[in-house]
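Record PGR5-like protein 1A, chloroplastic, 267 aa.
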Amino acid sequence: MLTFIFITGQVQEDEVIDSNVLPYCTIDKKQKKTIGEMEQEFLQALQAFYYEGKSIMSNEEFDNLKEELMWEGSSVVMLSADEQRFLEASMAYVSGNPILSDEEYDKLKKQLKIDGSEIVVEGPRCSLRSKKVYSDLSVDYLKMFLLNVPAAVVALVLFFFLDDLTGFEITYLLELPEPFSFIFTWFAALPLILWLSFTFTNIIVKDFLILVGPCPNCGTENTSFFGTILSISSGGATNKVKCSNCGTDMVYDSKSRLITLPEGSEA
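=>
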């Protein structure tokens, strides 16, 4: 009698080979590139292509790298053209090969601040040239949205008051069979309420902007309002703010989007 002995081997977890693994995701965890390294390669590829006119990797490699970064949740591949340009300029400056002049770099950074980009917002820091401590300001969109809430409530009250005056004709339109009810609600009623809300807000508050930033001394976030309320101006492009935590006097500049300390003060 012949006896066949089958030896069953177990495949270790780190020995599994997946044909779907991208070239940038190696099986060996020790050699796996970090997100930062992949992001740097991605930006270097963009810089070489757009500014030097050459490719440092094939189209397939670039697509694989981009797909891997998207899979890892990297925000670099989701940046706008100006944001990518800013990061490329920053990397080029650090490497000693600037691609933008100081004026172009500052202009681009300022525009990104105005656009609300988060990649240019930094915490408290010290400038060796000006010998000042300062922080960046960003737009507080939540508080700016909440400014429209009172006007929205007034608009809703007027809307239902008009409904009552017309003998609930508006309610009748809202209860029409689909798709007429949907069309009236989303393309007539809601746009009217929003228009009334923004109109009432702009009558009371004009050219308003709410900026928030960390205190250069303790890091506590403080908010400042810029604009005009019932023809009363907040004070122009700069506001003086006292930190709610440490009491440090600060100057908020809505144009440069910077927080600085007044002359003679110490952080």
